């Protein structure tokens, strides 16, 4: 198969994480270094071998890369900070992959890190009037989408809650997850309501954490003596922004377009995916996105979930990490954290969360509904 975007082949050879957690006094430097050192150790690389670094973050201010990476050594490499809302480190990973594919670097780092803090959206600072008077914040937006979905497909609140039950069960088996406790259907349904039918346990926690991934070229894989048996290939990378969709959900339609581009570029059909990590900040998103991705027909997401198709061991494991709902959504690291989980799954190293025989995986994130990034990865033994 040809390389990424028609260029050289690109492989994930190292992954590292700092557990996602509630706000603590831990410095963002310590969070990020834990993840980067973990990725270096996982790959069997030394810091001077890294040629370029991209950092995804949203709440730490300017110049985040340098105060982290200087502790590993001042090597003069290009460092770039990336902000793209929830898709920040997904975008950083895409840029690292494109550098390697294009021949600008043989070894590239993508990391994400964030602390809990005030997030300011530029659209709130335009000085222009807002049509919703600021009343439609994310939980309300997705609560309205949930109401529309349930009405259209004759579903009910339990169908939403089952998404949370599945993903909390996965998170309970993930040592890097913020929420590590299984939840019953009754616990999810009886929890405090946030917006419409969405209860607290159906909304992702926003905490702190870090994630890192190292990508290399074919040439570097062999020249540096890295373990090809654990190298996961990045088959495709796609990024799109919103278009005009009429009255249809722009989140779902943007996902449909972006993932279709990624899968077509990878030469992988939706039915061939074994693992999917998607943007499930609210339970309704999983139901919308599995349909938009082509994992099942429109309106059948809830039924397929109830039948176990999206559980670990089912037809395709959706959010085996626990997803944003249970693993958490520290924003900056979330995208690279998804890459880490998909890589772990395709290597067969996910332990209790392992999807049997996983060969192909997809990582997907939406950033404030305006951008979407999707990556398709292939396992070493496929």
Could you characterize the architecture of this molecule?
The chain has 382 residues and is α/β, with parallel strands linked by helices. It has a single domain (4-116, 205-376), classed as Peroxisomal Thiolase, Chain A, domain 1, CATH 3.40.47.10. Helices cover 34% and strands 20% of the residues. The protein has twelve helices and twelve strands. It has helices at 28-43, 65-69, 88-102, 138-152, 157-171, 185-190, 218-223, 250-266, 283-292, 301-306, 323-326, 334-347, and strands spanning 10-21, 52-56, 79-82, 107-114, 193-195, 198-199, 208-217, 232-241, 275-277, 317-318, 360-367, 371-378. A ten-stranded mixed sheet has the order 3-2-4-7-1-8-12-11-9-10. Helix 3 (88-102) packs across helix 12 (334-347), helix 4 (138-152) crosses helix 9 and helix 8 (250-266) packs across helix 9 (283-292). It is globular and about 55 Å long. It starts with 9 loop residues before the first strand and ends with a strand. The model has no long low-confidence stretch (mean pLDDT 95). Residues 24-179 form the Thiolase N-terminal domain. Keywords: Transferase. One of its GO terms (molecular function) is acyltransferase activity, transferring groups other than amino-acyl groups.
Structure keywords:
alpha/beta; 12 helices; globular; Thiolase-like; Peroxisomal Thiolase, Chain A, domain 1
Quick summary of this structure?
The protein is built from twelve helices and twelve strands.
List the helices and strands and how they pair.
Elements: E1 10-21, H1 28-43, E2 52-56, H2 65-69, E3 79-82, H3 88-102, E4 107-114, H4 138-152, H5 157-171, H6 185-190, E5 193-195, E6 198-199, E7 208-217, H7 218-223, E8 232-241, H8 250-266, E9 275-277, H9 283-292, H10 301-306, E10 317-318, H11 323-326, H12 334-347, E11 360-367, E12 371-378
Parallel strand pairs: 2-3, 2-4, 9-10, 9-11
Antiparallel strand pairs: 1-7, 1-8, 4-7, 5-6, 8-12, 11-12
């Amino acid at each position: 198969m040809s390389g990424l975007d028609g260029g050289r082949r690109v492989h994930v050879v190292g992954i590292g994480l700092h557990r996602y957690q509630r706000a603590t006094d831990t410095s963002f430097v310590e969070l990020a270094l834990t993840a980067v050192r973990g990725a270096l150790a996982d790959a069997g690389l030394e810091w001077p071998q890294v040629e370029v670094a991209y950092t995804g973050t949203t709440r730490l201010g300017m110049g985040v890369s340098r105060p982290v990476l200087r502790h590993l050594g001042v090597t003069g490499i290009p460092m770039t900070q990336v902000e793209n809302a929830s898709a920040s480190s997904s975008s950083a990973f895409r840029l690292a992959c494109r550098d390697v594919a294009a021949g600008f670097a043989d070894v590239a780092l993508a990391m994400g890190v964030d602390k809990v803090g005030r997030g300011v959206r530029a659209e709130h600072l335009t000085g222009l009037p807002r049509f919703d008077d600021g009343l439609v914040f994310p939980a309300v937006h997705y609560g309205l989408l949930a109401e529309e979905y349930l009405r259209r497909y004759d579903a009910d609140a339990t169908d939403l809650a089952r998404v949370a039950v599945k993903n909390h069960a996965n998170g309970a088996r993930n040592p890097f997850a913020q929420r590590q406790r299984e939840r019953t259907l009754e616990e999810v349904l009886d929890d405090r309501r946030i917006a419409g039918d969405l209860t607290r346990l159906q909304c992702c926690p926003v905490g702190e954490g870090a994630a890192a991934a190292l990508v290399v070229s074919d040439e570097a894989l062999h020249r540096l003596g890295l373990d090809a048996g654990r190298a996961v290939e990045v088959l495709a990378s796609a990024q799109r922004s919103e278009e005009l969709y009429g009255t249809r959900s722009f989140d779902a339609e943007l996902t449909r377009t972006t993932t279709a581009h990624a899968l077509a570029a990878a030469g992988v059909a939706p039915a061939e995916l074994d693992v999917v990590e998607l943007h499930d900040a609210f339970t309704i998103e999983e139901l919308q996105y599995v349909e938009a991705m082509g994992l099942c027909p429109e309106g059948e997401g809830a039924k397929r979930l109830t039948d176990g198709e999206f559980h670990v061991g089912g037809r395709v494991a959706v959010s085996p990490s626990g997803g944003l709902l249970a693993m958490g959504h520290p924003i900056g690291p979330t995208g690279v954290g998804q890459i880490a989980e998909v890589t772990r799954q395709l290597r067969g190293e996910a332990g209790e969360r392992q999807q049997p025989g996983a060969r192909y995986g997809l990582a997907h994130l939406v950033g404030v509904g305006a951008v979407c990034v999707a990556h398709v990865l292939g396992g070493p033994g496929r």
